[in-house]
Amino acid sequence: MVPLAVAAAITLNQSAAGATRLADYIRPFVGAQGEGNTFPGPSAPFGMIQISPDTDTTNWDTDSGYEYTDPTIQGFSLTHLSGTGCPDLGDFLFVPQVGKPEFVSGTKDHPETGYQSLFSHAVESAAAGYYQVKLQKSGVTTELTAGERAGMLRFTFPASDEASILTDLNHVINGGRWRVAQSRLRIEDNSTITGFHLVNGWAKERYLYFAARYSRPFAAAQIISSGKPVLYQSYVNYRFRSRNEAAGTNLQFLATFKTRAGEVIQVKVAVSAVSTANALRNLDAEIPDWNFDKLRETTRARWDRELSRIQIEGSQEQKETFYTSLYHALLVPNLYQDVNGEYRGFDQNIHRAKKFTAYTVFSLWDTFRAEHPLLALIQEPRDSDMINSLLAHYDQSADHLLPMWELQGNETWCMIGYHAAPVIADGFLKGVKGFDAQHAYDAIKTTAMNPDYDGLAAYRKLGWVPCDEEDESLSKTLEYAYDDWCIAQMAKSLGKPADYDYFLNRAASYKNIFDPAIGWMHAKDANGHWRTNFDAHLFGGGTNLQDVTEATSSQYSWFVPQDVPGLIALIGGPEKFVRTLDSLFAAKQSAAFKSELSADDLRGCIGEYWHGNEPSHHVIYLYCYAGQPWKAAELLHRVVATQYGSSPGSLCGNDDCGQMSAWYLFTCMGFYPVCPASDYYVIGAPQIPAAVMHLSNGKSFSMTAKNISDKNIYVQSVRLNGQNWDAPFLPYRELKNGGSIIFTMGPQPGKTWGIHAAVPQ
Amino acid sequence: MVPLAVAAAITLNQSAAGATRLADYIRPFVGAQGEGNTFPGPSAPFGMIQISPDTDTTNWDTDSGYEYTDPTIQGFSLTHLSGTGCPDLGDFLFVPQVGKPEFVSGTKDHPETGYQSLFSHAVESAAAGYYQVKLQKSGVTTELTAGERAGMLRFTFPASDEASILTDLNHVINGGRWRVAQSRLRIEDNSTITGFHLVNGWAKERYLYFAARYSRPFAAAQIISSGKPVLYQSYVNYRFRSRNEAAGTNLQFLATFKTRAGEVIQVKVAVSAVSTANALRNLDAEIPDWNFDKLRETTRARWDRELSRIQIEGSQEQKETFYTSLYHALLVPNLYQDVNGEYRGFDQNIHRAKKFTAYTVFSLWDTFRAEHPLLALIQEPRDSDMINSLLAHYDQSADHLLPMWELQGNETWCMIGYHAAPVIADGFLKGVKGFDAQHAYDAIKTTAMNPDYDGLAAYRKLGWVPCDEEDESLSKTLEYAYDDWCIAQMAKSLGKPADYDYFLNRAASYKNIFDPAIGWMHAKDANGHWRTNFDAHLFGGGTNLQDVTEATSSQYSWFVPQDVPGLIALIGGPEKFVRTLDSLFAAKQSAAFKSELSADDLRGCIGEYWHGNEPSHHVIYLYCYAGQPWKAAELLHRVVATQYGSSPGSLCGNDDCGQMSAWYLFTCMGFYPVCPASDYYVIGAPQIPAAVMHLSNGKSFSMTAKNISDKNIYVQSVRLNGQNWDAPFLPYRELKNGGSIIFTMGPQPGKTWGIHAAVPQ
After folding, report:
1. How close are the terminal C-alpha atoms of chain A, in Å?
2. Is A596's Cβ below 8 Å from some Cβ in B?
3. Can you tell me the distance from the alpha carbon of A152 to that of B285, in angstroms, rounded to the nearest whole number?
């Protein structure tokens, strides 16, 4: 490894030297096949706009709009979710066509019934800030690039008297459920349009505006309503209508051109959640010229800069996988503020952010685990902005709640818990600056005391969420307890001993639902009776039960990151703990278990461990608490080798806005935030030869894995900041000032290292 | 009459002296029965909020929501149109209930099927800024008052454990057609709510927000969706929902209270077209306290002030009718700007008005005739704001058009012509200050040159709008020609002789569609052939034809206000002109003519003259151009006596945002703006003993009608500013500096006065 300053210099000079730049390791197709649910199109780091091809809108599992195995592309829309488990966005589809234009999408099986087109991966490519494809039907080559709020589409047409670009405002990645409630289109001048739609989607009331400037004046410009041109005079409801604007629920815009062979038409686009005026402001501020390649290079350079925050050594494959993971981790949350500082708040009022930049897309049930802990280390200013965004949401919430799963100013009420608490507490305790700690503490405490929220009142009274009163009670009890522990940590730091005691007491609630008779967490009713017919190895706790969130109790029972020693004691000591863990990975999946997971999901399974979903993410590391870190090393290597990679199908589960990728990044570097808001990481086993992490505080922390190879996967010894280090725990204090961790790896389980250290409590 | 200074002093002192105040002559029920389409609820002059009872939402002809003969009241909504011919608004209905609350309106015949209630006019009253009624079902007395952007509802409940106030966001005066596309509700605290809806109505995409503060904390507060309480936990689309906010298309809010007998609960309400935040700002800025009576008195005093701009002598009935007419004339256009200066523009972006106050509801086809000419004289600052609002609309228009029929940031494309031109030109030539004359001229010229607008291109080429290419071609040709004349006048004043010549030439286009063979205007096709099967005495020109707008050619043929001498010549000289006019009033209505008008409409008919619609409004005055002003006097008296009054059913046609009333006001004072943007008014015959008009320039112009009585209806002589005045034309120059006109009235047609004067050209 090279020290920070040299590394930075290298990064900056790589371009000039013609060496491979970090951004060039990005493989945007990773996760685009199967359950990864990523999108291949260009985006700036944490960008507001993500222009990407859509192959599907109605399939519930194609949540980014793109499935690699689909045969057709519908067009290119401006916004995309990365790795979520619910579909939404896909706003404003642009479709180049040649010949008689089509106004419906058509079907994959019969693309001739609409505007969608067959395509081949042979004529498709993607890179940092860039995507291109040649559509079979029209022969048009489309290239995409994106800045922060604005991007460009570059279409290369064949010769045609009927070349056109359709913009479909009714296109939304809707999973077959969502709908456009209102839309509007305006032809602003002979080469500019603006538009808007209001979508009743996963986000119940989502407003998005756009602007588009074309590099050539329209030969003809037509607004289409429900597939028919909007005529100037119409007696349907309105005695007259404009040719230049229309409102309705199924609007499209058709720009027509005559093109020479190879003629390029470019479209600059921008979005805003505030207004078309702001979309135009965003567009003109970010892309004053018509230089596609310059914009692409700017974004590529942004990726170089962001990726250089962790520099690694490794094989080409390792670098591709690592930097693509880092790319995915730095795509989301998304900027949600216009160039003039305005953003749409959670109260749907337009606000001007004071002293912070507003972000959206908070998949907190996922991202509190490793994504935000990563951002706290290497994206501190942005993590601060994100925490301020969470607090703004709280301030604007009618329920006085921090967000649960925020999407463009909406609470989707998706998933469980109040995991803004660990995000805020971890950020605070890791030194993230720029937010009001007292206000933040008030917000997480108020959220955790809300008498209406998901069984919280009963939880406070009983010590558990009762399964006869609340769904997903087992998972909620466990996650509340952890969140409460995070609040306690912040209370302690802020000098609030009474609050500390109170929340620490709540943090022990997990004990109330551990059932020694079955050896697993067990849903319990308000009278203290265990749920009958409960099966710890079935999803939800058994057929038609809703006790466990997207998981089995055998997966969820491990969620006591705040007190693993306590959990070990509950289960019956370290040996039984390890045996129980072993049984998870060795379990023979029952037919009922399999029936709940699709083939794709099973790809992420090791026994009943399911890496494809977040409740399992910390589980492997628990071996380190029980004196058998070599078992963690073995499984970590297995997961890295089988569930990640640089191919479209490499991701075994939803990337979930970077969480799946952030797991990989930490794991490769040899440690993982099992318990965010604690003062330590768990040391697992590094998966790459070396890494240096440039912390936002200016310090650098390097990792070296001596002798690492496909066979040398076990940690033999560790030196931390020049000292021998026997504990499989990395205190934050050893990391934050920079330094180094040096692993010596070997082919045999290093059964002497890491087995005797005191376990953090 | 008393001179201005004395009159003003009297007005100010009337209250203290206990004398009748001008506002107390207002009879808000006038026009609420039949076709008048006014609303009885309170509004400040030109106010943004109009809180009023709604008796109907689905009947196309109950456009203000209230029909006096209806037996039931649904509730009290916050916004209303005054006198329009299309339904809209009626936003946010408040319904007091006692006992089990109902969530649907029910029917007039079976009010027990919903929340609407029988009521009696015996327990209902209305006055300036005030309305009250006791609802039979609940026994609740409701009182309403309104400021500019905010108002109050005061409910007096019986004793009940189940008293409630429902707010229905899905209630819109929809004529059976319009729909709420999206709505949202938030419980802000224990006594405050905010909400929003987006309505696809007459205004295609209309956003309105509201805020409501209750004088007592809610005992219970519940959001209702499609008639059912929004439960906290629901698996319908969303895994959890808030009790404190909801979005959807059929939302209601139910505030529940326990009440003692006679207990008063007040609700302060405000609206905004920008945001709920602005609705709250409007509310708190305008009504900082809970003093209903103070707000009522403030608005009553505002009406005193505005009504005192014309002070009259006359009988109680005359004063009631006159001041109610003035009230109706000063209700609309409506303020459309929040206390912080923000308003929703025609481009649906939020703007901050620069150096003007934004207004909405421009029923220009109606109001260019007498309403805006009246405002130019006595409301010059507001007329300036309105002209600036028209210009802002133009600036924001995708079509580069001044508005046609603007409603809350939407172009309804209702009616014909480009009558922002006469409004602007008349204002400019009457000395209305505060707008950019050059910009205004550019706007009206650009509008009049628009190649896409309603047959304008053909009109420019041919000299008429061809009936085979464009509907309502006859009316459009006539109105374009007049509007063009207005543009010419402004061009002349601004020193643009080429433009003056060009538009003056266009202004003569009316000649191209006069058919000497039938003696009327006649629709003509692009080849110059007259429409066959055309009937000048049938609506639209005959069965299923659309050549004439809401009228017959026998009514429309008189629309050449810019060149009545030219029209006289076309028709065949003064005598034939008069005979033809006589025939209009004497015509026996054919069955086909009657079949097009309802019984209500026929009430406004004198022969084929139909005072209930605007094309007829100037026609009686045309006798004055042909040397027979006594015939005008006779008919004016007849119309005033039969088509106006102080009863609910007094108005014979849509008040049309004040135009019907403004006709009455001018006519009573003895003169009328037959040709706005000209430099003269036509002297008809006064209908009241005396009046003094306090012009906005500080001057006062008084009218005295000596010897006037029910029999002495004919003008015998006139003294204008101390001189004998023989012409039935009142030059603006004689009015603008203040002065007096003194009529001497008599029982016989004064066939010597007004017959020889030169006709203005």
Report:
1. 33
2. no
3. 45
Question: Residue A140 and residue A159: Cα distance in Å, rounded?
Answer: 10
Instruction: Produce one character per residue of A464-497: b if its CB has 16 or more CB atoms within 10 Å, e if not.
Output: bbbbeebbbbbbbbbbbbbbbbbbbbbbbeeebe
Confidence of residue B284 (pLDDT cuts 50, 70, 90): very high
Give contacts of A411 with chain B, Cβ < 8 Å: 242
Looking at the predicted structure, is the pLDDT value of residue A166 above 70?
Answer: yes
pLDDT per position as a tens digit, A365-378: 999 999 999 999 99
- ipTM above 0.90 for this complex: yes
Coarse DSSP helix, strand, coil percentages of chain A, rounded to the nearest 5 percent:
35, 25, 45
B205, B395, B401, B452, best to mutate vs chain A, most A CBs in 10 Å = B205
Distance between CA A692 and CA A314 in Å, rounded?
12
* pLDDT computed for residue A243 by the predictor: 85
Q: B275, A399: Cβ pair inside 8 Å?
A: no
- For B325-350, the DSSP string reads HHHHHTT-SEE---TTSEEE-TTS-E
A69 CA: distance to closest CA in chain B (Å): 29
**pLDDT value for A18:** 56
Q: Would the CB atoms of B182 and A181 count as touching at under 8 Å?
A: yes
Both tokens of A225, joined, read: 């309503």
- How confident is the prediction for chain A on average, in pLDDT? 94
Least CB–CB distance from A188: residue in B243, B276, B398: B398
What one-character DSSP code corresponds to residue B700? Answer: E
Contacts of B187 in chain A (CB under 8 A): 398
Say yes or no to pLDDT of A697 above 60.
Answer: yes
Per DSSP, B149 falls in state S
The residue assigned the tokens 């007829």 is B616
Instruction: Write down the pLDDT at residue A695.
Output: 98
Q: Is the dihedral of CA B473, B476, B478, B484 positive or negative?
A: negative
| Distance from the B196 Cα atom to the nearest Cα atom in chain A, whole angstroms | 10
Cα gap B78→A298, rounded to integer Å: 52
pLDDT top residue among B19 and B425: B425
Burial A124-160 (b: 16+ CB within 10 A, else e): bebbbbbbbbbbbbbbbbbbbbbbbbbbbbbbbbeeb
Residues in chain B closer than 8 A to A414 (CB atoms): 239
